[in-house]
Amino acid sequence: MAGAEAANGRNKYAVLDPSDEPELDAAGPEVRRRPSAASERRSKERFVFACAIFASLNAILLGYDVGVMSGAIIYIQKDLHITEFQEEILVGCLSVVSLLGSLSGGRTSDAIGRKWTMALGAIVFQIGAAIMTFAPSFTVLMIGRLLAGVGIGFGAMISAVYIAEISPAAARGTLTSLPEICINLGILLGYVSNYAFSGLSEHINWRIMLGVGILPSVFIGFALFVIPESPRWLMMEKRVPEARAVLLQISESEAEVEERLAEIEEAASLLKSTKSEDKAVWMELLNPSPAVRRMLYAGCGIQMFQQITGIDATVYYSPTIFRDAGIKSDQELLAATVAVGFTKTVFILVAIFLIDKVGRKPLLYVSTIGMTICLFILGIALTLQKHAMGLISPRIGIDLAVFAVCGNVAFFSIGMGPICWVLSSEIFPLRLRAQASALGQVGGRVSSGLVSMSFLSMARIISVAGMFFVFAVISTVSVAFVYLCVPETKGKTLEQIEIMFEGGKEWRGGEVELEDTQHLIQSNKKSGSLG
């Protein structure tokens, strides 16, 4: 009987698991089965990667808007004659209003699915971008900017969640950091657009710069015909056959499909009842258990530190920074920003290769410490240019400022940039993932908006150099935050990470190893069956 069962087990997975196949005669035609299985596995890996790329297109919209506005604002000032206060509002309001998209995006994605929420975000952004392109006044420009912000909030929040839910644990860090790569690519494209169209008339050039941002959202429409719905969302809706069909598309074997289905099913509380089932999601977030509180500290905290260390101010106001360093012409200012965008994009590619090999926490240490040093150097360089002109030549001061800005964005791209997306999408349990990720986005977007909308006003009071000394001090605090609040999640499934946060003693004692987490899962299953 045992032998028959074993044979049946082999037959069940024989097609998808080549390791269970019997040895074949080399002369026989069926010898090609093994290469075919390997080819099928590579095909599935490419499919998952393609899904992650398409989902990340929303992040290009955010990046492009950040990059293009830094240069477009120079010509908007001249064409529409806006004040410095209006400039701060125009630049910073997108970060704040995008939180409306993030908040409603969490609830919307739970109602209509991850895939169609991304589509809705792209449509709203297109409408806003079109209004900005043809805006005859500051008021109309603001209306378009607000709509674009809502669309960006929708897409940026849910794309990372979607990618985390379709990715295998071994590649989740790499794939979930793709949105940050796309943000950096979008910033670079925005900078290049600024430089390319800066030679046109002041009435036309900024409109073209903003209008080009519509193109990525068009590709998102085509992506909807390629990517499947999130299997975890389908399971949450109890559409088990559809979830299984999606997992068959993205998993290496049927055995892996069954294993992932069981994990998701347990996490979604379809097999056992838990106290959290009786709570509304927002009530659980507002009155969290110790485990959920630790998740919120890590997920929301890293979103806030990502912004209050001044990265958006550095990117949005890089022309202002370089002008303060001594660069005079608009063309030279925009050329310097292209160097910043190129550096940011190159170093995010370094992070993508290291995040699943080195781990999240070591990269965060390198990132936060490096950013702190560069922010201090930038503050010193700008101070010397203003108050110690005789000590260094103007050219050296400019070069030092450009080097410090490029170094800051490079260290940001190695750690704080991509890992913020990864952690905020992987540490929350399925029942809370969309809403909790949205809550983290709210903290990040509000922080970004406050920094962006106060940078020029505060710089007038304490100087641009003084602002970067403040950012350097905050960055120093972020090093301690990483040490105290951020766990290592490399190589763990989403369900194992949830169990890790529930282990109070293990959490306080340090990191929970993969084997310990698996033991906790098995213990949890046994206690559930006994209950």
Automatic annotation (TrEMBL):
Its membrane topology: Multi-pass membrane protein
PROSITE patterns in the cross-refs: MFS, SUGAR_TRANSPORT_1, SUGAR_TRANSPORT_2
Family: Belongs to the major facilitator superfamily. Sugar transporter (TC 2.A.1.1) family.
Transmembrane domains' residue ranges: 47-77, 118-136, 142-163, 175-192, 204-227, 333-356, 362-384, 396-424, 461-486
Molecular function terms from GO: symporter activity
UniProt protein name: Major facilitator superfamily (MFS) profile domain-containing protein
UniProtKB keywords: Coiled coil, Membrane, Sugar transport, Symport, Transmembrane, Transmembrane helix, Transport
InterPro entries in the cross-refs: MFS_dom, MFS_sugar_transport-like, MFS_trans_sf, Myo-inositol_Transporter, Sugar/inositol_transpt, Sugar_transporter_CS
PANTHER family per the UniProt record, alphabetical: PROTON MYO-INOSITOL COTRANSPORTER, SUGAR TRANSPORTER
Domain Major facilitator superfamily (MFS) profile stretches: 51-490
Residues covered by region (Disordered): 1-38
Subcellular location: Membrane
A GO cellular component entry from the record: membrane
NCBIfam families to which the protein is assigned, alphabetical: SP (TIGR00879)
Pfam families noted in UniProt: Sugar_tr
Coiled coil region boundaries: 247-274
